Amino acid sequence: MIATTLTLSALLALGYALPFTNTTTHTKRYSYISGLQNNCNHDIAITFDDGPYQWENDLSNIFADNGQRATFFVNGYNWGCIYDEANVQRLRHTYEAGHQIGSHTWSHVGLSTMSTAQIDEQIQFVEDALWKILGVVPAVLRPPYGDAPDWAVQYINDRWGYTVVNWSEDSGDSAGASAADSLALYQRIAGDSSPHLTLNHETYYSTVFNVMPGAVSTLVGAGRSLTTVATCKDTDAYKVVGSYGQRDSTWTCEGKPAPGVA
């Protein structure tokens, strides 16, 4: 595992295309970790894929109301268009509550099935969207389906400066696990002192309303700290942080890859 520090000028020298829609930015040195990351260094990071979705703020509030944080890996166009006003407001609510927003690529296509040019487009479109909506450029990415061949991880590290993250435990929600089975995972985790990085999906009703209230309560009651991926990995959540952009004609999913299409 190698931690690398870059400045914005270094990103630009690599050909990094920052979408300067918002002019009120402030930049800093930021770090990322090379190689695929599958667990935290400390504490517990509970993560949610495939948003933004209709129940995202129910989730973000569960954590915030308990003084805890989570990480949301979002797509640009999967269950809905990221630029839809309802999704913009969901993302802003989540971000303002102190949760981390990471990239899950634009249209949720496996990395191993794409060329580097297609990967570039999948990453850039999400960066453009989050820059416009939140005024941030993420520094952490989760590959769709956990599909993370070595060549793609290295390419994303080197070309885009991302920490690429999978998970140490899967709640099983996307594979049909029952709420009781998913909750049992968190009850087991509550009983140890090891770091954990768990996979969940915000698009499953049972995850949001049947699993997470009990999971968070159990973990907090056991004295476990629930934090973001960036915090538990001792790295940065964002490459650049600025302020919200203003909606214009570019806030659209038209002309970009459809869900499941590169």
Please sum up the structure shown.
The protein is α/β, with parallel strands linked by helices and 262 residues long. Helix content is 35%, strand content 18%.
Q: What is Rg?
A: 17 Å
Q: What topology, given as strand order, has the largest sheet? A: 6-5-4-11-10
Distance between the termini: 30 Å
Structural class: alpha/beta
Descriptive notes:
The two termini are 30 Å apart. It is built from 8 helices and 12 strands. The model is unreliable at 7-17 and 19-28 (pLDDT under 50). The longest helix has 19 residues, at 116-134. Strand 4, helix 2 (56-65) and strand 5 (71-74) form a beta-alpha-beta unit. The strands form 4 sheets. The chain has a 5-stranded parallel β-sheet with strand order 6-5-4-11-10. With 262 residues, the protein is α/β, with parallel strands linked by helices.
Task: Write the SSE topology.
Layout: E1 2-6, H1 8-13, E2 26-27, E3 30-34, E4 44-51, H2 56-65, E5 71-74, H3 85-96, E6 100-103, H4 116-134, E7 136-138, E8 140-141, H5 150-160, E9 163-164, E10 169-170, H6 179-190, E11 196-201, H7 205-221, H8 229-232, E12 238-241
Parallel strand pairs: 4-5, 4-11, 5-6, 8-9, 10-11
Antiparallel strand pairs: 1-3, 2-12, 7-12
